[in-house]
Amino acid sequence: MVDKRSSNGKVDLLVVDDQCDEIQLITNILHHRGYSVRSAHSGKQAVEIAQSDPPDLILLDIAMPTMDGYETCQQLKSDQRTRHIPVMFVSAMEDVNNKVRAFQVGGIDYVTKPLQFDEVIARIEIHVNIRRLQAALENSNQELAKRLEELDQARTVEREQRYFAEALRETSAAINSTLDYNEVLDLILTHLERVVHHQTANIVLFTEGGDFHIARARGYQKFGAVRALQQLKFDGELLPSWKKMIEDTNPLVIPDTQQEPSWIDIEGFEWVRSYASAPIVNKGEVIGLINLESETPNFFTSEHLTRLQIFADQAAVAIEKARLYDETKRLAITDGLTGVYNRRHLLDLGMAEYERALRYRHPLAAIMVDVDHFKCVNDDHGHPVGDAVLQNLANVLSENLRVNDILGRYGGDEFLILIPETTYDIAIAVAERIRFQIETTPIGGNDKPICITLSLGVAACKCTKTLDDLVQRADKALYAAKTAGRNCVRGFHD
Fold first, then answer.
1. 392 Cβ partners below 8 Å, 6+ apart?
2. What is the dihedral sign for C-alpha 479, 480, 485, 486?
3. With 60 as the cut, is the pLDDT of residue 1 above it?
4. What range does the domain containing 47 cover?
């Protein structure tokens, strides 16, 4: 109910009666007593007035043509706009049944004619005050409900933020609990669901040359998109969304891909309707992306994006730590010049392989490789060229070996190869293949190509007791090759 006195200082009444003289009499008296009075001459007109501008109270006659007071009151009470207006019946009918019916249809009072206006005024004031108190209570209840709703929303937000903080903390602890690079990537994808809900997710990592590969992915089986993801390639530039994130290092959300002009449909990914991505940034450079997709439009929001970027920042730290650890491990076990195993790690791997061969009585062969007249290469062409020769030799040796074969720089210009599951005769053939390839493949120098040759010694662990015995026999065979004039292969025979 609107309190009319808040605007004009007077209670607003509507008098409904089909008798003009009655209306005039009541209106004059009520005006004189300080009320604002409007009138209606029929039930229909009363309903229309009340619907357009509700009064504070209605004085309603019962005996009216077409629509009597009872029906008028019923219509008022059945309409959400007018049901709150108090209705006081005014009638010359004193029968109890009439009064009972008046209350049944929604009236709040019943006064009989001829009117005793002091009584009428008193009753009007009572009902107006009651309605005003009801309205104030309703407003208070609405305000309380609003505040409770706001409080509930605040609690929900606080609960979600607390859950997010806990999930983020636990996720951070998990992905930082290991320094294994592949395990870190697995943990990132595993814990991502706790931070941002999604249907599919992938981690894209960029190479120094600007290319990319999908390092990890999950959820694509449902959409039959596993193969499409594995074969993902772009002709020319990257996707516009990826390019933008690489340039400004900011996350990106596309609520509905069908409403985004820059979105490019890719075969196998037509089902994607909502997309979110955050760059993995290390030292100001984007090294990868965390991509999320959903088949539901408007699935991802700005709040999701904020959470995803926080997670991506933590992932970047974990990835960098794991990468540095891998690099440290690699540097600890590899030769800095050639990239093959250094002597210590070579012998550590060799010891394990030798013990396995001895335990299961499997063949194991060793090839000792030495560059002929390497000192002359350094003296005639300089050490940078000598370094290039060793690097080229390491590449050729690697290309001629299997995955399980062990290659390392033994010292200076000497390399040692340990070949599991290989007999003496096969090892001789391998050594000869390497010798021939080096002899027939000149190495580019500053002035002209440089031709080098190799001396190679081969031994097998048939009668040896230790790895050291095997290496010494290969070394003796190498000495025999040098004694025989170099650029040849010799083997050690018991």
1. 443
2. negative
3. no
4. 4-138
Entry pTM: 0.59
Question: Domain total for the chain?
Answer: 3
Residues 310 and 364 in one domain: no
Look at residues 161, 165, 239 and name the one whose alpha carbon lies nearest to residue 202: 239
Helices (H), 337-439: 343-360, 374-381, 383-399, 424-439
**For the CA atoms of 281, 283, 287, 293, what is the dihedral angle to 10 degrees?**
0
In a domain, 143, yes or no: no
Residues 212-236: tens digit of each pLDDT: 889 999 999 999 999 999 888 876 6
80-107 per-position pLDDT tens digit: 999 999 999 999 888 899 999 999 999 9
Pairing between strand 414-420 and 285-294? unpaired
In angstroms, rounded to a whole number, what is the distance separating the alpha carbons of residues 301 and 253? 7
Domain identity same for 303 and 403: no
335 in a structural domain = no
Of 448, 463, 464, 458, nearest in space to 481 by CA: 458
What value does the CA radius of gyration of the chain take, rounded to a whole number of Å? Answer: 47
CB atoms within 10 A of CB 99: 17
Give the CATH number of the domain where residue 483 resides: 3.30.70.270
